[in-house]
Amino acid sequence: MCQLVSIEWFHGFDMIKWFLVLVCVSAVAARRSPNADYIDELESTRQGRYSSDILEDARLDVPGLLAKYGYPYEVHNVITEDGYILEMHRIPHGRDRNNRPNPNKPIVFLMHGLLSSSADFLVLGPGNALGYLLAEAGYDVWLGNARGNFYSRRHRRLNPDSIINQNFWKFSWDEIGYYDIAAFVDYILQRTKQSKLHYVGHSQGGTTFLVLNSLRPEYNKKFKSFQGLAPAAIFTNNDHLVFSALAPFENIIETTAFSMGIGEIFGNREFITWFATNFCHEGSIFHPLCGYAMTIVTASENFNQTMLPLFLGHAPAGASIRQVAHYGQCIRFNAFRRYNFNLLTNLAVYGRRTPPEYDLSKITVPAYIHYGLRDREVNYKDLHILAKKLGNTVGIFRIPRETFNHYDFIWSSKAKTEFYDFLIRKIREADRMH
To answer: Where does the signal sequence lie (predicted)?
Structure first.
């Protein structure tokens, strides 16, 4: 199954200010999910404990998942101003409801968090995952993939696999916001002939929205609403022990990694695969510890461990070391500011010794901030600080369950009833304001 191809060229534009776009054909069977090989080993080790549907979904990439469940889909490639080739997935309409093409459907753009991909919004399956629910609710759904993840690991000139030249990986979420999100938004609006869209960003997906609209405030007019699912920006109240322990060493970690020819984090799954298949299978004395570790990582009381192969089939999906280092700088210096290179580079790039903070008051998009009280990655107190700094906060909304946390936004078995239904109501509310 392939998509219709449409190639549109932009002539006469300054390449420094604009980007090239290209839509490519993609076959369903051409690719497997980021960690499909890992799932194969997990299945053989656990001797078919999980249903074949879960294991099949774990191996399929996003187009494969959409095709399997009978949803219309398109694969689009967007080339950014600085040459990164990004893959975007589209669900133009529903399967069971609102299932006819309509060029005037309101648009929702979904952006994943750190180390994730567009699969975040689909792994819970039809009837449960946000991407499917929005399509059934009558929205034209677009799902982005940040540079460096499994789907967007290409560049016009740079090689992501080069050990000698790490330039492909010398980006943080600053570039993702400034270049990638701008390219996605411009492409979607040009393609659909519409003027605005809704933006839903989880964690880093929220960070990149804030980066774009503070650095390029002209983009504010292109959004109907910003639905921030625990957007990561302020860390004044961070109490995550691992984050606090690593943040002081952010510069050393990145420098060391690049000197070793490593620019990517979780691009190579060999150790995790080896450990999981040898020590986490049923019957191993470490099996209870593995289950406990996942519970600790997710901190979710609604995390279905039967779904573990499916989640691990799609995440982690890769990211740059610098993305992590940039968050470390935010924690270390207690400031939401641009990436801190070094004195000389800062002077060359920013014209000052230290990087400037993002001016959140320039963000005038109606902002809806959503949070859980048990979120350890993004403390709810910091989201209240963020909401006060934004230029147009409509409201800050707590998910009622007191134990709702960072991973429940994408992996909770009760995400639909606890949050997604409410989120869709808020998106409809924003629609009525336009």
So the answer is: 1-30
At residue 12, the pLDDT reads 37
Residue 342: the pLDDT is 94
Q: Is 112 a catalytic residue?
A: no
Per-residue pLDDT, 20: 33
Looking at residue 219, its pLDDT comes to: 98
- Cα separation, 36 vs 429, in Å, equals 39
**Active-site residue, selected from the candidate residues 118, 152, 203, 225:** 203
Residue with tokens 């696999």: 161
State whether residue 246 is helix, strand or coil: helix
What superfamily in CATH does domain 21-30+61-267+316-432 come from? Answer: Alpha/Beta hydrolase fold, catalytic domain (3.40.50.1820)
CB atoms within 10 A of CB 190: 12
Count CA atoms within 13 Å of residue 182 on its CB side: 24
Cβ contacts of 82 within 8 Å, gap of 6 or more: 175, 179
Strands (E), 203-345: 223-229, 264-265, 319-320
Q: Is 166 exposed, middle or buried (0-12, 13-18, 19+ CB in 10 A)?
A: buried
Cβ atoms of residues 182 and 147 within 8 Å: no
CA distance 273 to 401: 34
CA dist 364 and 284 (Å) reads 54
The H helix count followed by the E strand count for the chain is: 18, 12
- Spatial neighbors of 127 by CB under 8 A, at least 6 apart, are 133, 416
Q: Is 434 a catalytic residue?
A: no
Q: Are 31 and 265 in contact (CB under 8 A)?
A: no
Q: How far apart are CA 210 and CA 226, in angstroms?
A: 9
Mean pLDDT, 10 residues at a time, the chain of 434 residues: 36 34 38 69 53 76 96 98 98 97 96 97 96 98 97 97 92 98 98 98 98 98 98 95 88 90 76 49 58 65 72 86 96 97 97 98 98 96 98 98 95 95 98 89
- Per-residue tokens: 133: 């629910």
Which tokens belong to 74? 């398109």
The Cα 162–Cα 14 span in angstroms is 30
Domain-by-domain residue ranges, the chain?
Answer: 21-30+61-267+316-432
Instruction: Report residue 32 as tokens.
Output: 């497997």
DSSP letter for 176, please. Answer: I
Strand pairing class (393-398; 367-371) = parallel
Given the residues 117, 281, 406, 412, the one annotated as active site? 406
